[in-house]
Recover the amino acids of this structure.
């Protein structure tokens, strides 16, 4: 720190140089932005939704870590460190974003997909099959089969919890691997809030590492909405002739996660892949998947109509034009075309990475 | 679960494969004729034609709410278009006129937001009134397992009760597909008294599809004693805590944004504007600041009216606080052409009270004095010991307060001068409650035409 006049001048010059670089960066960002194809740009609603989810996730982890580490530090005679952890500066989200850590493809893939799914789910119009009968999930929760009833209840709770995250309640329900990364990053960022040295620093590091491990062990991946939905789909094990009814009813009850799970389970792919297929406005893979399940024209029409109504990126006229062609796809050819999707995702990722590498 | 009985019976029609209207009940024929069509010709109401074409192409029954123009007004129509071999069979209900313009987006969701904004926790049901959503906080709050309730009938969680008029608001809500309020109920697992509010969700043909609801916990009648024992009456209209918190959270951010944006429009920071628009923006910012002040006051009001409200007993220097409060108001005072004469820098007046709260009281008193001062006027602030009390006197040259008003102005929502702009009538009430909670008081002496003199006292702290 130099407060002298010379230091001030040096600072000014340094800032001017930095401003020049920033100006260039901003221009580059603006150029990139301008040439982005429209269908690749996030709209404001998505941006806002992603920002809100990210903030809620980070805040939830931060709170858990600060509480637990604070207790440890107080118990070990370092209350000042506990106070420093809780002072909120630097802000966790800003620090992680600034460090570029959140620019993590896997994390952003999950968040973007999740927000997209929620956005479509929120926009689905209610369409009860029979207004006098309980909705599908409520019926399943009262199923005489304990496995089904329990799985349905877990999905109810997982959905309530997920909505709670957006309403401000704090539960992190990320996949374990992403949760791990976020927890360790957050613990490292918390470390910077204290200016401890010597034995105190060692104590702080130990407390933060213990806290992170404690938080990780408390994370139950099976409680995630996605896992609960898949569990229900496999417990229900809908027969081919039952699929059209349960899938349209899931959409009519505005349970997009349940719809994705029924589809993914029936096709034999993971929830994340099913979610990509259902939420992709270029719906060719979805139509193939529906045909692979041998769904009839009317069922595909109902599903397509519901999704078009809920997602402004889809065009109902294009869908109506294509419907006859979709319905004409033989189920076995659809299954063959989808076969690569069923390969292990890591294998597929490796194949496509290798192809990209060869081209380059 | 519809109230179709109370509306016009569904009107039927048949459209052939070429889009021509082949058969129509009289009501539909009239609508089609007024739009310039006729039986045997292509349907002249574009919205009806579009829905029936879509139903025909997709080959499934389609329900849509559309708005069709008829004469000067608009009609709300619920169209069901069912493809049959001969074409598309129509069934149209609704037929309600509406004003030519309504805000177009998300009425149900917006109504739902209003229901939610003040709630302690939330619930939703499907059309058969099975619970499909419960706030995760509900179980922890009351001590029951939400897992046992999801998927179960609404009445499994709530034992519904009649209101004072002997009616069940939820039944009216169900029958009329409208929002209902103030449905008394008790939570079956715990016996906790609650009030239910909900707004309905409908499907695309207007059929009831469930409720989006909120729960307000009814505070128990006991434990409501006024712990302050002050002469100010405990309020019968005290705000429930959760409400004030949500009000705070719900309003502060949007108001802050309104104020910030209005200020930057006023400053023309994004580019030049016509002066009158810039002035409107200043009005918007001022109104926003007024509302923000009201939010602050309501939150304070809620805090001080709680039975467990307590203030800290800190060693403070009232003279220093008075200088600080005056400093905070210097900008506003010079904007109004008012000078503030504050206690000298070396003056000290030790007292006992909570620093933050005492400062709040002084800012309020001095702010009032500045507001009611004439242009070029002066506000005097004096700090002096009065027996075992420390007193700050704030005097202005305003038009004064008549003797009969001097009690009234300390009441909630009362104003020194109701014609004067600004202020919400809570500031003095809150200041007075705070002063008394700290063991002091605020008194006024004034006569019309001679300015007002407010005396804020706190216990003197002897060395």
């Amino acid at each position: 720190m130099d407060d002298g006049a010379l230091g001030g001048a040096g600072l000014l010059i340094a800032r001017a140089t930095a401003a020049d670089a920033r100006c260039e960066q901003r221009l580059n960002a603006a150029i990139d932005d301008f040439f982005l194809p429209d269908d690749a740009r996030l709209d404001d609603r998505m941006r806002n939704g992603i920002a809100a989810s990210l903030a809620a996730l980070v805040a939830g982890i931060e709170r858990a870590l600060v509480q637990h580490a604070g207790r440890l530090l107080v118990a070990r005679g370092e209350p000042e460190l506990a106070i420093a952890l809780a002072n909120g500066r630097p802000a966790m989200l800003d620090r992680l974003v600034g460090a570029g850590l959140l620019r993590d493809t896997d994390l952003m893939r999950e968040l973007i997909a999740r927000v997209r799914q929620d956005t479509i789910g929120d926009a689905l119009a209610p369409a009860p099959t029979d207004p006098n009968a309980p909705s599908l999930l409520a019926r399943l929760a009262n199923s005489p089969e304990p496995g089904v009833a329990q799985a349905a209840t877990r999905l109810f709770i997982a959905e309530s919890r997920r909505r709670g995250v957006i309403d401000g309640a704090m539960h992190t329900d990320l996949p374990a691997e992403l949760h791990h990364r976020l927890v360790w990053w957050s613990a490292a960022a918390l470390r910077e809030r204290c200016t401890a040295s010597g034995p105190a620093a060692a104590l702080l590091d130990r407390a933060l590492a213990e806290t992170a491990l404690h938080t990780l062990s408390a994370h139950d991946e099976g409680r995630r909405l996605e896992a609960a939905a898949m569990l229900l789909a496999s417990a229900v094990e809908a027969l081919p002739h039952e699929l059209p009814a349960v899938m349209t009813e899931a959409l009519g009850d505005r349970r997009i996660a349940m719809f994705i799970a029924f589809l993914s389970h029936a096709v034999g792919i993971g929830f994340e892949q099913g979610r990509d297929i259902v939420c992709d406005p270029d719906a060719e893979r979805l139509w193939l998947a529906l045909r692979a399940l041998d769904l009839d024209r009317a069922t595909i029409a109902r599903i397509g109509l519901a999704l078009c109504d809920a997602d402004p990126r889809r065009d109902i006229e294009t869908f109506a034009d294509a419907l006859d062609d979709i319905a004409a796809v033989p189920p076995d050819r659809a299954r063959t075309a989808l076969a690569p999707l069923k390969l292990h995702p890591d294998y597929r990722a490796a194949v496509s990475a290798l192809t990209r590498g060869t081209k380059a | 679960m519809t109230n179709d009985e109370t509306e016009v019976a569904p009107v039927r029609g048949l459209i052939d494969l070429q889009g021509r209207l082949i058969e129509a009940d009289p009501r539909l024929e009239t609508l089609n004729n007024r739009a310039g069509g006729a039986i045997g010709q292509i349907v002249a109401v574009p919205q009806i034609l579009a829905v029936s074409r879509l139903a025909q192409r997709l080959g499934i029954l389609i329900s849509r709410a559309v708005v069709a123009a008829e004469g000067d007004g608009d009609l709300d129509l619920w169209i069901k278009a069912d493809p049959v071999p001969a074409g598309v069979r129509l069934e149209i209900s609704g037929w309600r006129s509406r004003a030519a313009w309504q805000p177009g987006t998300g009425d149900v969701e917006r109504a739902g937001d209003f229901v939610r904004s003040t709630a302690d926790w939330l619930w939703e049901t499907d059309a058969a009134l099975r619970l499909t959503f419960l706030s995760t906080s509900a179980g922890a709050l009351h001590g029951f397992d939400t897992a046992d309730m999801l998927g179960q009938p609404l009445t499994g969680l709530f034992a519904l009760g009649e209101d004072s008029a002997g009616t069940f608001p939820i039944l009216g809500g169900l029958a009329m597909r409208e929002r209902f309020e103030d449905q008394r109920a008790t939570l079956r697992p715990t016996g906790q008294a609650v009030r239910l509010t909900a707004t309905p969700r409908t499907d695309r043909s207007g059929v009831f599809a469930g409720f989006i609801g909120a729960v307000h916990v009814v505070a128990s009648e006991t434990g409501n004693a006024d712990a302050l024992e002050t002469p100010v009456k405990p309020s019968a209209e005290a705000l429930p805590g959760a409400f004030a918190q949500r009000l705070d959270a719900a309003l502060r951010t949007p108001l802050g944004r309104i104020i910030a944006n209005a200020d930057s429009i006023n400053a023309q920071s994004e580019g030049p504007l016509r002066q009158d628009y810039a002035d409107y923006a200043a009005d918007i910012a001022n109104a926003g600041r007024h509302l923000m002040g009201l939010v602050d006051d309501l939150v304070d009001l809620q805090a001080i009216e709680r039975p467990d409200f307590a203030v800290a007993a800190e060693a403070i220097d009232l003279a220093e606080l008075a200088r600080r409060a005056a400093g905070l108001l210097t900008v506003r005072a010079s904007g109004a052409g008012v000078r503030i004469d504050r206690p000298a820098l070396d003056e000290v007046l030790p007292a006992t009270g909570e620093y933050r709260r005492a400062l709040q009281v002084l800012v309020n008193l001095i702010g009032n004095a500045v507001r009611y001062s004439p242009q070029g006027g002066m506000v005097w602030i004096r700090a002096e010991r009065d027996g075992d009390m420390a007193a700050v006197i704030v005097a202005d040259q305003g038009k004064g307060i008549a003797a009969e008003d001097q009690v009234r102005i300390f009441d909630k929502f009362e104003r020194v001068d109701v014609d004067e702009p600004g202020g919400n009538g809570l500031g003095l009430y809150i200041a007075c409650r705070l002063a008394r909670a700290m063991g002091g008081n605020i008194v006024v002496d004034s006569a019309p035409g001679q300015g007002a003199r407010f005396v804020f006292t706190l216990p003197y702290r002897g060395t």
